[in-house]
Amino acid sequence: MERILSDKNIEPSKIHTFLSIYARYLFYEKKSDKEDIIKELHAFMISSYPNYRPADWAVKLETCTKQADKYPLCKCKGIWVTERELQTIDDLNDKVLERLAFTLLCLAKFGNFRNPDNHNWVTYRNSEIYSMACINATAFEQDMKFHKLKELGLIEYAKKVNNLNIQVLYTDSDSSETLFISDFRKLGYEWRLYKGEVYIRCTDCKILVKNTNGKRKYCKSCGENHNKQKSLQRYHRGKTGNF
Question: What is d(CA 191, CA 133) in angstroms, rounded to the nearest whole number?
Fold first, then answer.
C-alpha cells in the first residue's frame, strides 16, 4: 500500500477499487476514524488526479468510508496453480483464451482465499478481468470469449439475469502445486512468462513488462520517473558547478 501511495501508479479503471481498499487500510491498519478517512481519500485524489473534482467524487468517498469497517483487509501472499489446472489451460491452444482462463482461475482462487464459501466465483467487472488478463477487446469480443469458455465447460454464469459473476469449473486441488502467483496486476503476462516468453519485473514497482531488447530494467511509468530523476540530478549538479 505504501508503494502505491508513493508512486501513485494506479490505472484509472481501478481507482474505485483502490479507494475501497485504501479506506479499509486506513481503518484497520492506521486506526483512522471516518472523518480522517474521508480527508485522506480526498487528499490522495487531489495529489494523484489533476482533473479531480470533489463534488463528483463526494458520494464515492463517503460510501468507501462508511463500508471501511465491514470488510477486514485480506492479506494474501499469493495462490498456487496446480499441474492439472495449468494443463487444462494449455490444452485450449489459443493464446488469448489461455490468458483469460488463467486470469479467471487466479481470481477464483483468490476469492476462495478471502471467503472459504466462495466456491470458485469471480466477481470482478469484465473490464477489470480483461485488464488483468492483458487482453484488448471490445465488449462484444469479451462476451464471445466468455461464451467460448462456457461452451467448453470451463465456466458457468450466475443464474440471476442481472448477476454477471462467473464461476470457474476447472480448479483441481488434488494435483501437485506447480506455479505460485503473488502479483495479480498483469496475470496475462504471468501466463506468458510461464509459457517461456521474455518478461522481466520492473526494478522499482516489480510489475511484469516485456523485455524485447534484453536490456530493459523499468516499466514505462517507472522508466519515465527514473529519467526525470536523472535529469533533475544533472540539472542540480550543473547549477552547483556554475555557482
Answer: 9
The distance from CA 90 to its chain's CA centroid, rounded to whole angstroms, is 23
**Grid coordinates given for 91:** 490444452
pTM over 0.90: no
pLDDT tens track for 96-119: 999 999 999 999 999 999 888 999
Q: CB burial class (10 A; 0-12, 13-18, 19+) of residue 136?
A: exposed
Q: How many residues does the chain have?
A: 243
Spatial separation of the C-alpha atoms in residues 50 and 47, rounded to whole Å = 7
Instruction: Please state, in angstroms and rounded to a whole number, the distance separating the CA atoms of residues 43 and 118.
Output: 35
| Exposure string over 96-116, b if 16+ CB within 10 A, otherwise e | bbbbbbbbbbbbbbbbbeeee
CB contact at 8 A, 187 and 203: no
Digit-coded pLDDT (tens) for 115-142: 889 999 999 999 999 999 999 999 999 9
